[in-house]
Amino acid sequence: MAAKVMKAVQYFGYGGGAAALKHVKVAIPDPKADEVLLKVEAASLNAFDWKIQKGIPRPLLPRKFPYIPGTDVAGEVVQAGSAVKKFKAGDKVVALFSHATGGALAEYAVAKENLTIARPPEISATEGATLPLAALTAHIALTSVNIKLDGSGERKNILITAASGGVGHYAVQLAKLGNTHVTATCGTRNVDLVKGLGADEVLDYKTPEGASLESPSGKKYDCVIHCAMGIPWATFEPNLSATGKVIDLTPGLSTFMTFARQKLTFSKKQLVPLFLTPKTENFEYVVNLAKEGKLRTVIDSKHPLSKVEDGWTRILSGHATGKIIIEI
Fold first, then answer.
1. For the chain (length 328 residues), average pLDDT per consecutive 10?
2. Which of 102, 125, 254, 274 has the fewest CB atoms inside 10 Å of its own CB, making it the most exposed?
C-alpha cells in the first residue's frame, strides 16, 4: 500500500466533549498476524464511547492517549495478517474493536479476525457499522435468560427499558423472534417507532404509569433487559415474576451490591450485571438476521447532524436510537 499516513479523529485526555476531538494525520497501523487492515467506509459511536472520554471507566480505559474513539466499523480489507485464514484484500466486512484500543474514527483501522464478519451485499456499510456492539449486546442479554430466538420454548413476558435506544431497538426486534410478550419503555415521541419494531405494549416513561413499569395488561415480567439508567431495584421488584431477573446493561456500584446481597440471601428475584463477551457465532447470527431483513437499524440519513468540512466524513443521526453513524 503506497499511503503511509491517514486522517483520524483523536482526543488527548479525559473530558472536553466535542471540542476536544482533533483532526490529525497519523501513521496507518500495521496488522498483526491475526488481524486485518481495513479501509473504513463507515463507523458508529455508542453511549459507552462518550463515557470513556468523560473518564467514567478510568483508569481502565482507554489504554493510552492519544485515543481514536469508536469500536464499530464497516469497511474493506486491504491487507490480511500472516495467520488470517478467512479474509483477503477486497473483502467487505464489519468489525468490532476493543474499547481499550478504539480506532474506528480513522480512514484505516486494524481488526482481529475473530471479531470480523463478512458483510453481505444486502447490508450497506452504514447499516453494517451500526450492528457490532449494540446488536451483539442485545443478543447476548436475551440469550443469557434462555430466550430462544427461533420461537421455541416456554412463552416469557419481557420488559425492555429505553427501547428506542441503540441496544433497546435491537432487543425489541430480537425478542419478538422468540416466544415472548414484549413490554417496552421509551419517550413520548418514540412510542410509534417502538410499536413498529414489534413491541406488544409501550409505556411512556415520563408518565406515572411508565415510571412504575407496570404492564398495562397486568403481566409480571420473567426478565427485564434494562438498557436505561437511574431506575432503582425497588421499582423493578414488584413487577417481576417469582423468579424474574433484571439484566442490567449499564451496571454501577449499586447493581453489584444488590447482586451480591441477593446471592447471599438466595433470592429468586435477581438484578444481574451483564458482561459482554462477544463471540464469532453471535456476530455472524446478527449480521445474517440483518441480511434477511429480520433485524433493521433506524437511521435518519436524510437529516445529517453535521458535516465535517474536510471532505472525508458525513455524520448521520441514528434517529431515536441515540447512535451516531459516520460515513468515511
1. 86 94 96 98 94 93 96 98 98 97 97 98 95 96 96 96 96 98 96 97 96 97 96 97 97 93 96 93 97 89 47 51 67
2. 254
